[in-house]
Write a structure and sequence with these properties.
By secondary structure, the protein is mainly α. The protein is 94% helix and 0% strand. It contains 1 helix and no strands. The mean pLDDT is 92.
């Protein structure tokens, strides 16, 4: 259970950092 919570927290942190970055990347690619 502890391992699952740790995995979910890491996944949440990754999604917070990666999702906005991917969003900015798609915007920059589509604006060209």
């Amino acid at each position: 259970a502890i391992l699952l919570c740790t995995f979910l927290s890491i996944l949440a942190m990754l999604s917070r950092t990666c999702v906005p970055w991917l969003f900015k990347l798609m915007i920059s690619l589509s604006s060209e």
